[in-house]
Specification:
The structure holds two protein chains of two kinds. Chain A is an alpha+beta fold. Helices cover 29% and strands 25% of the residues of chain A. Chain A contains three helices and five strands, in the order αββααβββ. In chain A, a hairpin with a 2-residue loop joins strand 3 (74-78) and strand 4 (81-82). Chain B is of the alpha+beta class. Chain B has three domains: 9-210, Aldehyde ferredoxin oxidoreductase, N-terminal domain (Aldehyde Ferredoxin Oxidoreductase,  A, domain 1, 4-Layer Sandwich); 238-430, Aldehyde Ferredoxin Oxidoreductase Protein, subunit A, domain 2; 439-505 and 527-617, Aldehyde Ferredoxin Oxidoreductase Protein, subunit A, domain 3. In chain B, the strands form four sheets. In chain B, strands 2-1-6-3-4-5 form a six-stranded mixed β-sheet. A six-stranded mixed β-sheet of chain B has the order 8-7-12-9-10-11, with helices on both faces. In chain B, strands 13-14-15 form a three-stranded antiparallel β-sheet. In chain B, strand 16 and strand 17 (429-430) form a beta hairpin. In chain B, helix 18 packs across helix 21. The longest helix of chain B has 21 residues, at 528-548. The chains are: A alpha+beta, B alpha+beta. Chain A binds chain B through residues 26-28, 33-34, 69-73, 75, 77, 80-82, 84, 100, 102-108, and chain B through 238-239, 241-242, 245, 248, 250-251, 253-260, 270, 272, 274-275, 280, 317-319, 433-434, 455, 459, 461-462, 464-466, 500, 504, 569-571.
């Protein structure tokens, strides 16, 4: 019983705390590629809210290259799965996700 | 000849059952200048030669099947990424084959004074061909027969010097494996379709070429400025720098995210182990230095060294990572590099090898084959040791390797049960690294590529939707896009330059290709519409070749798994292409090409394209 109670306590405390996601840039953003940041977000935050926490100049680059174009040449993925363009603003995060921003390129 | 850029001659060699040291029959013919404006060179002129030299009566491994080395007027000039093409009848498909390679050999063929080298016949014993300008000799190859491509090339370079450029086949070519490749400059392969087996069938281990001539161009100052223009285009290119920094492996991560990365014999389109085989891991774990092709302004290859590797090698490229990584369930870039080295050393295509081994792994996991059949190998997905062993067994046609050595189509026929459902090929050629259920247009591109399951004629998965309006999971817009992409590559493959470079790094358009021909050849009035018509002509000519071999609409199809089964993951999850969508794309495509509903070019199309001489070869 003690173990079960422990799990419940931990779950409750998670709901009240901030959680982390990792954002990795695999294309050139901020003048370099293959770099990342860890962000604290509120539980159940949207992907759009998470992106809004990135340094302003980088966020503006994301907006210009990824969010604003109807058919962008860049893509964003959560845990390795691409997020459709029309779902980027609403996609929910639970914490612990790996968010990847990459060129929408395929092929050799 | 009046035209610049060309060497001006075709060299015809008849091996005619000769032994080393015996006088060889060879002759040269001047290029037909009227044909040059219609077909340019490379794939176009080579297709014309093959059409007239190898009809339906000639089997791929017959002595009379020509092994044609083709260059174009842009080859060897200071433009982006010179290449040569091997053109022959494919042992894998029995159809038209063109397979391209970089390296220095492309230029050397031109420097020796030839635009095309056509080899027919069969040597009486293992030999190699030595071409030094007007000297054409057959030499004894008994000391390199049976050796790996690396060892054979090294031996010949020691004998002839580094200025001699070598094309060589490996043990797989000697054993007539129909997806055996030919290799040059150690690190470059004409991989697809089995050109190595054609060389092996001729008892020809290698071709060594050394030239002393120059190539003249029509406007050298203009060409210098055009190179500058290319560099400016490169600076403005969105992704050119990524291409140069990481090479083709850059796109493995996005391919997996988009859901088009073949995984476990095309059972999935995303790979959970992608981070262990992507370009960043490659750079961190096995990368040594960068490498590039002759005359390339944007070198994109990686020198790597695998832990178990004997040499440093170039690769693994995207296709190799896809087919010998995710598609066989191996999530270790070091092992993928090792597989790459094994394939190159034995001289087998990495794409077909990965395709056929993944097929065998699925058969094994489904219980269609067992350890008794696999010579004791535990052929489960992810077993890297088994993959390495199978590559060697295929090349040597050893045990179960002999079952897989004839390609996935024939392996499925032999294994039977439900295995043809997941034998992933088009017209006998194993599919490369793009899952069509993640972008339906890719399926149309595979089905209509003249050499079979091929990604080099059109690659719709890479096209952003701001350039073409098309439906990723439907049929709308797909046929015109595929045709346009195929047409763009034709004049590039006639040049012959690197289509990947022109596309990724410079983002060139047809007007730029026309400008290259104006500057190099001196065709002052060549225009994009003329090049588009030329592209249609060559595409239809190669189609006519295949139609003459019996190809019809029923052959322009996809594996049942791709057509009828939904993908379990990725953006394409649950989507089914099906006959209706596929046939709609195919009908529209045929119509755009001026072919009838059975895929046979119409007489009026042949007339419009200046191909009336072959009307009589086609069924009514």
């Amino acid at each position: 019983m003690r173990g079960v109670e422990g799990k419940v306590v931990r779950a409750q405390s998670m709901e009240n705390s901030k959680t982390k996601v990792q954002i990795r840039f695999l294309a050139f953003f901020g003048g370099r590629d293959n770099w990342g940041v860890d962000l604290n977000i509120a539980p159940e935050a949207t992907l759009f809210e998470a992106l809004g926490k990135i340094e302003k100049s980088i966020y503006e680059e994301i907006e210009e290259k990824l969010l604003r174009p109807q058919h962008p040449r860049y893509a964003i993925a959560i845990n390795g799965k691409i997020v459709p363009q029309d779902q980027i603003r609403e996609a929910r995060l639970r914490g612990g996700e790996k968010i990847t921003i990459m060129a929408r390129l395929v092929g050799g | 000849m009046g035209l610049k850029g060309y060497a001006g001659k075709v060299l015809f060699v008849n091996l005619d059952n000769k032994k080393a040291g015996e006088t060889l029959q060879w002759r040269t013919e001047a290029l037909n200048e009227i044909l040059l404006r219609k077909l340019i060179g490379g794939r176009g002129y080579g297709a014309y030669l093959l059409y007239h030299l190898a009809g339906p009566a000639t089997k791929p491994l017959d002595p009379q099947n020509p092994f044609i080395l083709s260059t174009g007027p842009l080859t060897g000039t200071p433009l982006a990424g010179s290449k040569f093409a091997v053109i022959t009848k494919s042992p894998l498909t029995g159809l038209f084959l063109d397979s391209y390679s970089g390296g220095d050999l492309a230029g050397e063929i031109k420097y020796a004074g030839y635009d095309h080298i056509v080899i027919q016949g069969r040597c009486a014993q293992p030999s190699y061909l030595l071409i030094e300008d007007e000297k054409v000799e057959l030499r004894d190859a008994s000391h390199i027969w049976g050796k790996t491509t690396f060892a054979a090339e090294e031996t010949l370079i020691k004998e002839h010097g580094g200025e001699t450029k070598i094309l060589v086949t490996g043990p797989a070519g000697e054993n007539l494996v129909p997806f055996a490749c030919v290799c040059t400059d150690y690190y470059h392969q004409s991989g697809r379709g089995g050109a190595g087996a054609v060389l092996g069938s001729k008892n020809l281990k290698a071709i060594a070429v050394k030239g002393s001539k120059d190539i003249t161009v029509a406007d050298s100052e203009g060409l210098r400025k055009f190179r500058q223009y290319l560099l400016e285009k490169f600076k403005k290119s969105q992704f050119g720098d990524l291409r140069v920094k990481y090479g083709t492996p850059y796109t493995t991560t996005s391919a997996s995210a988009i859901g088009v990365l073949p995984t476990r014999n095309f059972q999935q389109g995303s790979f959970e182990g992608i981070e262990k085989i992507n370009c960043f891991t490659l750079k961190e774990k096995i990368w040594i230095s960068d490498h590039g092709c002759l005359g390339c302004q944007a070198p994109c290859m990686n020198f790597v060294k695998a832990k178990k590797g004997k040499i440093k090698l170039v690769g693994p490229e995207y296709e190799t990572i896809a087919l010998l990584g995710s598609n066989v369930g191996v999530d270790d870039i070091d092992r993928v590099a090792e597989f790459n080295e094994l394939c190159d050393a034995y001289g087998v295509d990495t794409i077909s090898s990965g395709g056929v081994i993944a097929f065998a792994m699925e058969c094994y996991e489904k219980g269609f084959i067992d350890k008794k059949m696999t010579d004791g190998l535990d052929l489960r997905f992810g077993n890297a040791d088994a993959v390495a062993e199978m590559i060697a067994k295929i090349a040597r046609r050893d045990g179960f390797g002999n079952v897989l050595a004839d390609g996935v189509k024939k392996a499925a026929e032999r294994i039977g049960k439900e295995s043809p459902h997941f034998a992933i090929h088009v017209k006998g050629m194993e599919l490369p690294g793009y899952e069509p259920r993640g972008a339906f247009a890719m399926g149309l591109a595979y089905a209509t590529a003249t050499r079979g399951g091929c990604h080099r004629r059109a690659k719709p998965v890479e096209i952003p939707q701001d350039r073409f309006k098309y439906d990723i999971f439907g049929s709308e817009g797909n046929a015109p896009m595929v045709k346009k992409l195929q047409d763009f590559r034709e004049p590039v493959h006639c040049g012959i330059l690197c289509d990947a470079l022109l596309r990724f790094c410079f983002e060139l358009e047809m007007k730029d290709i026309a400008e290259m021909y104006r500057l190099v050849v001196g065709w002052e009035d060549i225009s994009p519409p003329e090049l588009t018509q030329l592209a249609e002509r060559i595409y239809t000519l190669t189609r006519c070749y295949n139609v003459r071999e019996g190809i019809r609409r029923k052959d322009d199809t996809l594996p049942p798994r791709i057509l009828y089964d939904p993908l379990p993951d990725g953006p394409g999850q649950g989507k089914v292409m099906g006959d209706k969508t596929f046939n709609k794309m195919l009908d529209e495509y045929y119509s755009l090409r001026g072919w009838d509903s059975n895929g046979i070019p119409l007489p009026e199309t042949l007339q419009r394209l200046g191909l009336t001489e072959i009307v009589g070869d086609l069924p009514e």
